[in-house]
């Protein structure tokens, strides 16, 4: 039954966070610093999540085939490849490194 309590508390917490966001005055949201931070924050969070998922396993730092796939994707992005090509390059390099035993 404790799982349902946790789910209920999480739902209430999410609702309260959304309500607090709606109560923020518009003048506070129109400040240049707030607008710059709101534009950059999602990119920073996505980069942190990608790094955490790529270079960690069982609470330790790991450099394996996932890192090679990420590097291939980054290279494809630097070459301005379409998203599907970036995805295929990352998958192919990751699979290739794993097949070679890395």
Outline, from the CA principal axes?
A: flat
N→C terminal distance: 44 Å
**How many strands, which pairing sense, and closed or not: the largest β-sheet?**
2 strands, antiparallel
> Nearest-angstrom radius of gyration?
20 Å
Task: Tell me the structural class.
Answer: mainly alpha
Oligomer: single chain
Point out poorly predicted stretches.
Answer: none
- The share of residues in helices is over 70%
| Average pLDDT figure | 93
Number of strands: 2
**Roughly what fraction of the amino acids lie in strands?**
under 5%
**In what order do the strands lie side by side in the largest sheet?**
1-2
Question: Topology as H/E string?
Answer: HHHEEHH
Count of helical segments? 5
Describe it.
This protein has 102 residues and is mainly alpha-helical. It contains 5 helices and 2 strands, in the order αααββαα. The model has no long low-confidence stretch (mean pLDDT 93).
In short:
With about 100 residues, the protein is mainly alpha-helical. It is built from five helices and two strands, in the order H-H-H-E-E-H-H. Helix 4 (about 65-80) packs antiparallel against helix 5 (about 85-100).
What characteristics describe this protein?
102 residues; mainly alpha; two-stranded antiparallel sheet; 5 helices; 78% helix; flat
Write the layout of secondary structure elements.
Blueprint: H1 2-23, H2 26-29, H3 32-54, E1 56-57, E2 60-61, H4 65-78, H5 83-99
Antiparallel strand pairs: 1-2
